[in-house]
Amino acid sequence: MWFEINWNVFGVQNLPNKWRDVHSISFLKILLRPIDELYYKWYNWRIDNIYKLDHTNQICYLRGSLNDRFDPIERRIYIGDGLFYETLYIFTEAEEKTVWLHTESENETLWLRTESETADTGLDFIVYVPEELYNDVYIMEGLKAHIKFYKAGGKRFNIFIDE
Fold it and tell me: Domain of life here (predicted)?
C-alpha cells in the first residue's frame, strides 16, 4: 500500500549512483532514523485507530475488544445484564388486580425472590473479569477507560469478579 515505506531503501534508491558507497549509505541511514521512528509511531497509531473503528459499543464487539486487550489467551471476560432477575408482581386480594401467571395445565414453578434480587441495580450491564485481573490496579484502570471509550453515552456499568 501507499503507506508501507521502507525509508532506508527509499533513501538509498534516491541517492545518486556515485554516492552509493558504504559510508554514504550509513550516513544516510543515520539521517533517516528519526523519520523512520516517526513513521513507525504513525503506522502503529493508524493500526490502533482502524481497530477502534472496527469495534462498536455492541456487546459482542466490546467483549471481543476487552478480551483482545486484557485477556488474549484465555478470553475469560464476558458481559452480563444489569438486572439479576425479571420482576414479577403478585397482588393481594384487596388490590383486586388479576394477573395470570400461567394456566393450570402449565406446570411452571413460580420463584419468589427478595427485593435485592429483583431490584433495579442501577446498572445497564456488568463486566465479569477473572480475579487476577480484578486485583491488579493498573489493569482495572485500563479496563474502566477501555469500557468508557466504547460504551454508549448514559449507559451505567460495573466490574465484578467472575465466580
Answer: Bacteria
Residues 33, 67 within the same domain: no
Residue 100 lies in a domain: no
Report the pLDDT value the prediction gives residue 163, as an integer from 0 to 100: 72
* Residue 158, strand partner residues: 126
Task: Answer whether 0.70 is exceeded by the pTM.
Answer: no
- Residue 98's pLDDT is 63
Residues 6+ apart with CB under 8 A from 130: 71, 74, 76, 77, 161, 162
Report if residue 97 sits inside a domain. Answer: no
20 and 68 within one domain: no
Tell me the three state secondary structure of residue 79. strand
Encoded amino acid at 51, one letter? Y
The count of C-alpha atoms lying within 13 angstroms of the C-alpha of 3, restricted to the half-sphere facing its C-beta, is 10
DSSP letter for 130, please.
-
What's the total number of domains in the chain? 2
Helix (H, G, I), strand (E, B) or coil at 95: coil
pLDDT of 136-149, one tens digit each?
899 999 999 999 99
**25 and 48 both lie in a single domain:** yes
- Cβ distance 162 to 78 under 8 Å? yes
**Residues forming beta bridges with residue 113, ordered by sequence position:** none
